[in-house]
Amino acid sequence: MSDLDKIFKAYDVRGLAPDELDEAVAEAVGAAFVRLTGATTIVTLHDMRTSSEPLAAAVGRGAVSQGADVISGGLGSTDMVYYASGFLDIPGVMITASHNPAKYNGMKLCKAGAKPVGIETGLAEIKKMVADGVPGYPGEPGTVTSKDLLPGYAEYLKKLVDISSIRPLKVVVDAGNGMGGYTVPTVFEGLPITTIPLYFELDGTFPNHEANPIDPENLRDLQAAVREHRADIGLAFDGDADRCFVVDERGEIVSPSVLTAMIASRELAREPGATVIHNLITSQAVPEVISEHGGIPVRTRVGHSFIKAKMAETNAIFGGEHSGHFYFRDFWFADSGMLAALHTLAALGHGDRPLSAILSEFDRYSASGEINSEVTDQAGTTRRVKEIYAQQPGVTTDELDGLTVSGDGWWFNLRPSNTEPLLRLNVEAASEVETAAIRDEVLGIVRGTGTRSE
């Protein structure tokens, strides 16, 4: 048995395949998952990695050994698992390592109704059962049935966001050889969209670039293609297509915070007064826009388990993260990159303005992006930063997630990595000059090259 401490993460199971995550582990997880949930039926899907189909089959074997039936969905995106789990009201397992390199694979699990399974909501129990050996099941084994879930998924999304009457659009889509290449053609079928596909061939070796659109380097081909084809918009999906990044008609990358604010305004037009969740790294423009449109902004920690829990607790209509994850109440509080893409296409296609003009009202501040610093003492360094800034007049601090320091028209957050000796810095201010000055000041303290100027 592999080292389970290595592969059981906060929100999923992930590791090198097959060195750390092999079929024996997957089979044991499938069996333990059925024991945990008491499910009589589960659904499995997998991405395009070479190890994914065998791992999905192994999960299925484990599940049927405990008497559960398995709906084998075959290829799919992670939000297709959420759709199947929510629509059919059964637990689901997605075999994917998302945006990680080709040598990795993993499992994302959810309970019936797409409720997340993390280390505090069942994953620790599954890990213990796998380590101890899952008890045998005395009854009859279950059965495996194949089912194509893609048509139902596409139909459901298009009911949530109707874009059948939009003006004709030219859309470049970079699937990064990931699952967007499988889902986009069916979702866009019958719509007034001319799709220019980049890297739609399913290839888990990622021959063109990493399927990780949060890294601007991986968006360069999309930006170039939007300019070359004079497209209206560019969309980029990560490997399992649960995240979506957008490029406007100029080829400029759109901040996920801007998309969060825009989608929030659309959802609040549909349900005035609703709650919208945003994590504390999103732009200050997000809570401003939510309030301006009559909504209730609720700030939360970074991480999908916190977002989903807070959404369920507040019955929030929508939630957004700086990392390109977008969550929808009508999608069982789960995240869907495709649904975010449809909202953006609707906003663009139901008017005649270019995307950059539509989004300009939501793009209000300058942001540094996330900057990592390696430190030997995360807590001590963070304390030092707090001590220096807390003395300043008009400055407030909070520790909801790491340290957030706010002043007049600016803020920064300094957050420790859970897995590496890093501190992650995000800065936002009214101008690029002010953002750069605050960034350099904080990095000077964190990296020991200076202190805050008085």
UniProtKB/TrEMBL annotation:
Cofactor requirement: Mg(2+)
Alpha-D-phosphohexomutase C-terminal domain location: 370-443
Matches recorded under InterPro entries: A-D-PHexomutase_a/b/a-I, A-D-PHexomutase_a/b/a-I/II/III, A-D-PHexomutase_a/b/a-II, A-D-PHexomutase_a/b/a-III, A-D-PHexomutase_C, A-D-PHexomutase_C_sf, A-D-PHexomutase_CS, Alpha-D-phosphohexomutase_SF
PROSITE patterns: PGM_PMM
MF annotations from Gene Ontology: intramolecular phosphotransferase activity; magnesium ion binding
Alpha-D-phosphohexomutase alpha/beta/alpha domain: residues covered: 6-128, 153-251, 261-365
GO biological process assignments: carbohydrate metabolic process
Alphabetic keyword roster: Isomerase, Magnesium, Metal-binding, Phosphoprotein
Organism domain of life: Bacteria
Entry's family note: Belongs to the phosphohexose mutase family.
Protein name as it appears in the record: Phosphomannomutase/phosphoglucomutase
Organism: Trebonia kvetii
